[in-house]
Amino acid sequence: MQAPLTFAVDNRLPDILERVTQLLPRLRPQTATNPLDQLLYGVIAQGLSSAGATACYRRVKERFPSFSALRDAEPGLIEGLMVGAPSAALKAQAIPEILRLIDEAFGSLSLEPLSRLDQELALRFLTRLPRVTEEIAASVLRFTGTDRLVLHIDKDVARPLRRLGLAEQGAPLSALPRQLIERSPVAWRSEDFAGLSRGLTRVADRFCHQGRPDCASCPLANLCPAAEKAEAKVVTFPFGKARKTAA
């Protein structure tokens, strides 16, 4: 067991969350999503655009409206419905196998039992299924009806995190979620972390570039210890000497 970290709660985080949330589009109310639909959609969607994945999954569901019918379907029939999908044959083989493994593990075609597992066990179960990545597994757990925390930080989100001092500079990506959680308010829930992650993705894309960051336009500049400060201007005096004064 890892020793607990001892980071103090960073009081800037509520303000950071509020600011980055302003960069996000307003979300439309969403209808409840079956976690099993989310899982199968995630497998099909790999390598496809959102529109392409939605159209592909709709064709599969129209042909096999129940999970039991899809579990028992011939892979060749499923493959024929995934026109234009990369690795269609492999995905078509994986989908019935995923459903069979879930049925065998839980005695039904449902992911509801995942809500009774802790995060690590739930992720481990999902990622052992054919063609299910950690990203797909994390998205599925958001639909299991529990307020579990699933926080994944990629290299783009890590850049503003490190510059803000919310994660150690030399720490590997795998350590950053835990470091951020240790610094966060105890009242934060999973949706707060999700909003922060999405907002920092926007910050990284629009302002906090890998090369020269656009600190002057960044909404987090006055909270960031790494933000570039205004350069000193040279003021010339009539006595022939010059001195620097802060802008």
UniProtKB/TrEMBL annotation:
Residue spans crossing the bilayer: none
Gene3D superfamilies: Helix-hairpin-Helix base-excision DNA repair enzymes (C-terminal), Hypothetical protein, domain 2
GO molecular function per UniProt: 4 iron, 4 sulfur cluster binding; DNA N-glycosylase activity; metal ion binding
Keywords from the UniProt entry: 4Fe-4S, DNA damage, Glycosidase, Hydrolase, Iron, Iron-sulfur, Metal-binding
GO BP annotations, alphabetical order: base-excision repair, AP site formation
Protein name: Endonuclease III
Species per Swiss-Prot/TrEMBL record: Parvularcula mediterranea
